[in-house]
Design a protein that fits this description.
alpha/beta, Rossmann fold, about 20% strand, binds coenzyme A
Length: about 160
C-alpha cells in the first residue's frame, strides 16, 4: 500500500487544496491530510476547527485520513510509514521554498519522496491568507473555498475578528 502525506497549515482549506487531494487519491491507496501546528503562522482556526472544515469539504472517503502533527514532517512520515509527501505548486513564488523544503526533508528522511502536483489554474493565485483577508473584510470568497469554509469565515467576521 502506498501511503502519502499531504501536509499543510490548511488555515483554512481552499478549493485548491481540495483539488490536489482529489487528484492525489487517484494516485495513492491512502492519503493522510497532516495538519501542522505551524510555528511560523498564527492560525485563525484551531486545529479542531480546521480538521472539521476539511472533513466537511471532502465528505466520506475511507482512503482519506485527517491527522495533526507537531515537530518535523520527516519524523511524522517515518512514524506513519509514509513514503510520499504531496505538495501543491502554485505560482513561481512557491518554487524556492518548496525546493528548499523538499531537499531538507530528503536529507532528514531519505526514503521519503516529495511529489509536486501543479495546482489547478483557478487556484493558481489563491492562498489561505488572501481568502481570510477578503472574507474578514466582507468580500465574496464563494467559489474559492468549500461552502462550509465560507460560512465559517462569515461567522468569524460576525464575531468581530479582524484580518
Ligand atoms: N490551492 C490554494 N492555495 C494553496 C494550495 C493550493 N493547491 N497549495 C498551497 N496553498 C497555499 C496555502 O493556502 C498557504 O497559504 P498561506 O501561506 O496564505 O497560509 C500556502 O499556500 C502554503 O500553505 P501550505 O501548503 O498549507 O503549506 P504551509 O507553508 O502552510 O505548511 C508545512 C508547510 C507545514 C508542510 C511545513 O512548514 C512543515 O513541514 N512543517 C513541519 C516542521 C518541519 O518539518 N520543518 C522543516 C521543513 S523542511
Amino acid at each position: 500500500m502506498t501511503l502519502a502525506v499531504y501536509p499543510g497549515t490548511f488555515d483554512p482549506i481552499t478549493n485548491g487544496h481540495v483539488d490536489i487531494l482529489r487528484r492525489s487519491l487517484k494516485i495513492f491507496d491512502k492519503v493522510v491530510v497532516a495538519l501542522a501546528e505551524n510555528v511560523r503562522k498564527a492560525p485563525l482556526f484551531t486545529i479542531d476547527e480546521r480538521r472539521k472544515l476539511i472533513a466537511d469539504a471532502l465528505k466520506q472517503d475511507g482512503r482519506l485520513e485527517i491527522d495533526a502533527f507537531q515537530g518535523l514532517l520527516a519524523d511524522y512520515c517515518r512514524r506513519r510509514g509514509a513514503n510520499v509527501v504531496i505538495r501543491g505548486l502554485r505560482a513561481l513564488a512557491d518554487f524556492e521554498y518548496e525546493f528548499q523544503s523538499a531537499h531538507m526533508n530528503r536529507r532528514l528522511a531519505p526514503d521519503v519522496e516529495t511529489l509536486f502536483l501543479m495546482t489547478g489554474e483557478e487556484s493558481f493565485y489563491v492562498s489561505s491568507s488572501l481568502v481570510k483577508e477578503v472574507a474578514l473584510m466582507g468580500g465574496d470568497v464563494s467559489g474559492l473555498v468549500p461552502a462550509g469554509v465560507a460560512a465559517a469565515l462569515a461567522d468569524k467576521r460576525k464575531q468581530g475578528v479582524k484580518p
